[in-house]
Specification:
single chain; Thymidylate_kin-like_dom; alpha/beta; Thymidylate_kin_CS; Rossmann fold; transferase; binds the ligand Cc1cn([C@H]2C[C@H](O)[C@@H](COP(=O)(O)O)O2)c(=O)[nH]c1=O; nucleotide biosynthesis; five-stranded parallel beta sheet; binds adenosine-5'-triphosphate
């Protein structure tokens, strides 16, 4: 049974870059590693509709915090069997964004705290009703919000087709999401959280696989 590790952080924080490095590092050590990135664009209709809404389609869909969160949750629910089977067949499964993304963005959009109603709703929906696997560890990429936002802006200007979406263009939202993430990490939401600002994959690889005493809330 492998370990499930969720990498979290605001837009442009460097999650994808770090996950790529971690996977390379662990594979070089001979570990069996699987990786998933949520939303699963091009793989589930829920992810694609959410992306389209964040780029201006589907009327006022994106205005509803709960509707957007439900799409992201359904994207994961549609992937649950694949995820469970990956955990059973690998030493490590790394997810680039997971349920905590829904908790952090939804709470920030509603200006709620990490212990507010929408975080409880996300928890009950995704870990309760949808029975998604609970991560053994979370890693928060805690680079300063201004740094992450500058990276997202620069990526958008250099990569055609990677225009910033509605959330990425909202600097105030990004700062609030960052604050909710830090509160989720401080409370050990669902499992122990590690925080990284500028550690390399090699620095983090052992920390993330160290034994933990998981909590459930
Ligand atoms: N440590 C770093 N130093 C400088 N630039 C970085 C670093 N890590 C990532 N970047 C750059 O910042 C941009 C965002 O990185 P990345 O795509 O990994 O972030 P992300 O957190 O996965 O973003 P998103 O959630 O918005 O998809 C990319 O252009 C990437 O090359
Ligand atoms: C998985 C997930 C994502 N979000 C938000 C976070 C981002 O701003 C967008 C799109 O994700 P990407 O990493 O930039 O491609 O959606 C969310 O609110 N809830 C989620 O579960």
């Amino acid at each position: 049974m492998g370990r499930l590790i969720a990498v979290e952080g605001i837009d442009g924080a460097g999650k994808n870059t770090l996950v790529t490095g971690l996977v390379e590092h662990w594979r070089a050590q001979g570990l069996r590693v699987a990786t998933f990135a949520f939303p699963r664009y091009g793989r589930t209709v829920f992810a694609d509709v959410a992306s389209e809404a964040l780029h201006g389609e589907h009327g006022d869909l994106r205005e509803s915090v709960y509707a957007m969160a439900l799409l992201f949750a359904l994207d994961r629910s549609a992937t649950a069997e694949e995820l469970r089977s990956a955990i059973a067949g690998h030493d490590v499964v790394v997810v680039d964004r997971y349920v905590a993304s829904n908790a952090a963005y939804s709470a920030a959009r509603l200006r709620e705290d990490a212990d507010g109603a929408v975080v409880r709703w996300v928890h009950d929906l995704e870990f309760g009703r949808f029975a998604l696997p609970v991560p053994d560890r979370h890693l928060l990429l805690g680079v300063p919000a201004e740094v992450a936002m500058a990276r997202a802006r620069s990526r958008a200007s250099s990569a055609p087709g990677r225009a910033r979406d509605h959330y990425e263009r909202d600097d105030d939202l990004q700062v609030r999401v960052d604050a909710v993430y830090r509160a989720l990490a401080a409370s050990g939401w669902m499992s122990p959280w590690a925080e990284s600002v500028d550690q390399t994959p090699a620095d983090l690889a052992d920390v993330l696989l160290a034994p933990t005493t998981a909590s459930t809330e």
